[in-house]
Each structure stands twice: as C-alpha cells, then as structure tokens.
Specification:
The complex is a heterodimer of chains A (300) and B (258). Chain A is mainly alpha-helical and 300 residues long. Chain A contains 11 helices and 4 strands. In chain A, a hairpin with a 4-residue loop joins β2 (132-135) and β3 (140-143). By secondary structure, chain B is an alpha/beta fold. Chain B folds into 2 domains: 1-84 and 175-258, P-loop containing nucleotide triphosphate hydrolases (Rossmann fold, 3-Layer(aba) Sandwich), CATH 3.40.50; 95-174, no CATH class. Chain B contains 10 helices and 10 strands. Chain B has helices at 47-55, 77-83, 100-108, 116-121, 124-143, 159-172, 189-205, 217-223, 241-246, 248-253; strands spanning 9-18, 21-31, 36-40, 62-67, 70-71, 85-87, 177-181, 209-213, 226-231, 234-239. In chain B, α3 packs across α5 (124-143), α3 (100-108) packs parallel to α6 (159-172) and α5 (124-143) crosses α6. Classes of the chains: A mainly alpha (300), B alpha/beta (258). The A-B interface holds A 166-169, 171-172, 174-175, 178-179, 181-190, 295 and B 55, 57, 76-78, 81-82, 86-87, 89, 93-98, 102-103, 105-107, 109-110, 113-114, 116, 119, 155, 169-170, 172-173.
C-alpha cells in the first residue's frame, strides 16, 4: 500500500472525527465565553439529540427530518437547562455553577436510563446513508456518514461564523463575552443573548450526537461523556472561550487521535486516550490560554 | 404639570446602606436637560454609590430615582439604559477584544435594531438601519478623532483614547442623561481641555443632561452649571461653581485636600 494513500486515508479519518470534536467543543466555548462557566452537561445534549432523533425515527419520521428534530430537541433542552438550573445560580461562585452542571448531567443521564434503559440501542440509518466510497482499489475508503458529518459541520460552522460576525445579535454576544456588565449598560439584553448561546451550543451538540450515533450505530444514555471530555481537551488546546480556538482544537485533536493509532507502534494504540489527556495536562501547565490566546484568564 | 417642569433626573431621599456603613444618606439631586451638574467629594463620600443607584447596579435602601418623572430605582441596568441613562466607569469598561467600530455598533443597536429576519433576508430595512448606524458611528468617532482607528482593537488604544471611546459608546445608546465617572482621570491638561469642550458641545448637540463626578477641580469648575458636594454620604452643599469655591465648609471637607 502506498504511504501517500495511507496518509490520505488517515487525514480523511482525522477530519471526520475532528468535525465531531469541533462541533461539541465550539458549544462548550460559546457558553464559556459568555458565562465563564464550564458546562459539564454539554455532552448530554448529544445524548438527548441522538435519542430524540432515534425516537422520531421509530415513529416513522424520515431520517433527514429526525436529524433536524435531534438538533431542535438538543437546543430546546439546552435552553430549558439554562432557564431552570443555571440562571437561578448565575453570579454565584464558580464552583456552584460547576456543581450545578454536574447535577444536570446526572439528572439527564438518569432520565435517559429511565426512559430508554442503560443498554445500547441500535441507531438505524437510511439506505442512502449506509454506503461507502472506495478509491484506489479500496486503499482509501470512507462512509457516507463521514461525508455527511464533514458537510454538515462545515455548513453549521459557516452559519455560526456568519451569525457571530455579521449580525447584531452575534455582535452583542461577542460584546457580552467581553464584559457582561458593560453589555447590560449599553442596553444589550444579556439574558436573551445567553439563551441564544445555549440554543446554538446545544443545537450543535444535538447534531454531533446524531452524527456520532450514525457512525457508531448505537446510542446509550452515557454516550455523551467521552466526547465531552475530548471536546474539553480540544477547547483547551485551542484556547478556552475562543470559537476559532475550539474549531482548531477539535480538528487537531481528531487528527492526533487518528495519527496515534495509525502511525505509532500498535502496542501504543491502547494508550491513545492517556496520550490525549497527558496533552491536556501539558497544555494546562504550560499554555493554559491554548494556541489562540483569549483575552481573559482561564477559569476551570 | 407641563413637560418642562418635570426634571430629567430627580432623586429624593436616596439612601444606601452597606452593613453598618451608610454610603449615601438621603441624597437629593435634580438635573435638567442641557444642564451639567458636578458631584464632588473625597473618596468614600458616596459618589460612586450614587452613580450605581441611578444606573441600577445597586438597589437603594430608601428613596426614589425618577427619570422624567418615572420611578426607575427598581429597574435592572439594561432597562435603565433603554430608558435613556448612559454612563462611563472609573477606569474603562470597553469591549476590549472588539474593534473601535464594533464597540460603538454594539451600543447603537439599542436605538437602531435590526431583527434576525432582516439579517437573514438582507432586507432593504437592514440596509437602511446599517446606513444609519454607519453614519452615526462615523459622526461619533469623528467627535473624538477616532475615525482613523475604527478597525483597531479597542484594548490596544492608548488610555486617553479608550476613555473617549467609552464616552462615545455611551452616546451611541442615544441617552437623555449622560453620567461620567471621573472622565478626566489619567488625562493631561491639554486632553482635559479638549474633553471639557467635547462635553459642553455634546450636551447641546444631543440635548443631554450630564452628571460628572471628577477630582479635577479645574474641569469641574469650568464645566459645571451646578455642583453638589458630598461628604460621608451626605450632601454638604450645592450651588454654582463660584459659590462652592467660596463656601468655607466645602473648602474644609474637600478643597482643603487639594
């Protein structure tokens, strides 16, 4: 097998995985940027979105609509969680917010177990999605789900970029992320901006959840945990609170994970996650602002 | 009562207590449109507490704040900003990571909103609003000579420019009352002189009432129509700059420190 094709295959794998990390990491960063809060329940919006799409699919809704439904259900859940759990404790000590988000995680996951049991469910995908591409005699292969992941991530992130840089509300959100009090003072409706940030972040997580489930073929209530940790690492690598940083971190992490498995001796493959989290510790120690430094200190 | 008879801002019996400290005791002040009123006093005399009570950052324990007759002391800061009170801070509170232009635009949304629908569809309404905001931004940045810095990051501006930007950002919200907290702090004599001209100019141009807290006596005496002197949360004296300078107790509690 030619090394060039092998590398190309790994890049494809890395971009596909990195897209999912980027989607989740950007949501973490959006919320952190405006509230300075690490939302540990963010991974559960993936689970909610995936189960939402699964339930809609089981009720006969076509996959394309169920996917949109998963995004909407994720976004709605994020908005409800903000309203019910986070807003009442806003302005309290950081650790209060942190613990609240952990509590929300437990509640959502146990709700998932209550409704769907803790065992994995098959996540059916339609025929058009259940196919793969092969090039160069099968030396390069990728699935239709990979393509869908990369395309939908690209569309979502482009829309986010447009929103943040070209609209009043996006400008307001960036202003509130810089200084919430000053934003209040120039008459920006900070509550509304926070709700929109949660809706966007959780909608992205819902999308990531459906795509993740489509790739894995299964959904389970605890499915959000690992991607959340990975997205957290990605956001730290890029610079916590920075949208561009989360994007960069997501793709770097995706590529790194794939490359560890592909290019390091196979005995090291089981240590993939250990290597990734060592990287997190290294960044926290030596470059806590990440690659794209944000203007504020990092609060964890 | 005729419209003109209702003052722009009126506080009465305004009291704020922190634990055992009465930061502001039964303070009353009246500001009319077109008037510049100075509030002076030593550190800890209650000037910032007064600002914070009027702008909604603190809730007074007693007393009323009325804007054009409407009680506002229980409203949140965002609502008060919408009703037409804008302020600057001691030390700046700019959106440091945004550009100079974006700082003004973020504030200009208040009077010139465009909906998401306009933004998505690129409606003619959006174009009209954007043109208005662009014109206003250019005018405001021109006032403080920042139009050539419009695309710089606000946090990278020299300190004096940051103060001036904060002032025009406050103006961009279309206020009726402008509250300036030590606007001349850190400025040299020439800059202070320009600031004085700017403040007198904008009160007519934008039909504002202005309240200034300031330690720079030169600025206060030359700028203000009336001055209120606070000490330990209480109003010691109120009058014209000449009367304030002549008053023996004022010299004792405040000017003596100069």
């Amino acid at each position: 097998m030619s090394p060039g094709l092998y590398i190309a295959q790994q890049i494809i794998n890395g971009v596909s995985l990195g897209s999912l990390y980027a989607l989740v990491a950007i949501g973490l960063s959006l919320v952190f940027g405006i509230l300075r809060m690490t939302n540990f329940a963010h991974g559960d919006m993936m689970m909610v979105g995936a189960f939402g799409a699964l339930t809609l699919g089981a009720a006969g809704v076509p996959f394309e609509l169920a996917l949109l439904g998963g995004i909407a259900i994720g976004a709605l859940t994020g908005v409800i969680v903000e309203r019910v759990a986070y807003r009442p404790v806003r302005g309290a000590a950081d650790v209060t917010l942190l613990l609240t988000s952990l509590a929300v995680t437990y509640i959502l996951e146990n709700l998932g177990i209550l409704l769907f049991t803790s065992s994995p469910h098959d996540f059916p995908i339609p025929e058009w999605l259940d196919s793969s591409y092969e090039f160069s005699d099968g030396q390069i292969t990728f699935t239709q789900v990979n393509v869908l992941t990369v395309v939908l991530t690209g569309i979502s992130l482009s829309l986010l970029g447009w929103f943040v840089t070209r609209t009043d509300m996006g400008l307001g959100m960036r202003a509130a992320a810089e200084d919430m009090q000053a934003a209040n003072l120039v008459g920006l409706d900070v509550n509304k901006l926070i709700v929109v940030a949660f809706a966007l972040a959780s909608g992205f997580a819902g999308l990531a959840g459906v795509l993740w489930a489509a790739q894995a073929g299964v959904v389970e209530p605890s499915m959000g945990f690992t991607p959340l940790l990975k997205a957290f690492v990605a956001a730290i690598i890029g610079g916590f609170g920075s949208i561009a940083g989360a994007l960069l971190g997501g793709y770097l992490l995706g590529a790194l994970e794939v490359f560890i498995v592909a290019f390091l001796p196979s005995e090291l493959s089981p240590y993939r996650d250990a290597i990734v989290f060592s990287l997190l510790i290294a960044f926290l120690l030596f470059r806590p602002y990440g690659l794209l430094r944000t203007t504020r200190e990092v609060k964890l | 009562m005729s419209e003109a008879a209702v003052p722009l801002l009126e506080t009465s019996g305004l009291t704020k207590i922190f634990g055992r400290l009465t930061a502001l005791r039964s303070q009353s002040i009246t500001v009319r449109t077109g008037e510049i009123v100075g509030v002076i006093g030593p550190n800890g005399s209650g000037k910032s507490t007064f600002f914070n009570c009027v702008t909604g950052f603190l809730r007074p324990n007693a007393g009323e704040v009325r804007l054009s007759g409407q009680p506002i002391q229980n409203l949140p800061p965002m609502k008060i900003a919408r009703l037409g009170i804008a302020r600057t801070f001691q030390g700046t509170r700019l959106f440091a990571g945004l550009t100079v232009r974006e700082n003004v635009r973020a504030a200009a949304q208040l009077r010139h909103p465009s909906s998401m629908l306009d933004a998505v569809l690129g409606t003619p309404r959006l174009r009209a609003v954007e043109d208005k905001v662009d014109a206003m931004t250019a005018e405001l940045l021109g006032l403080v000579d920042l139009h050539r810095q419009a695309d710089r990051r606000a946090g990278d501006l020299p300190y004096g420019d940051q103060r001036r930007l904060e002032l025009v950002r406050a103006l961009a919200t279309g206020p009726r009352l402008l509250m300036l907290d030590e606007p001349a702090a850190g400025m040299d004599a020439a800059e202070t002189r320009r600031l004085l001209e700017l403040i007198s100019d904008i009160r007519h141009r934008y039909k504002l009432g202005v309240i200034v807290v300031e330690h720079d006596m030169d600025l206060i005496m030359n700028l203000c129509d009336r001055i209120q002197v606070l000490a330990a949360g209480e109003t010691v004296f109120e009058g014209t700059p000449a009367a304030v300078q002549a008053h023996p107790r004022v010299r004792e509690v405040y000017l003596g420190h100069e």
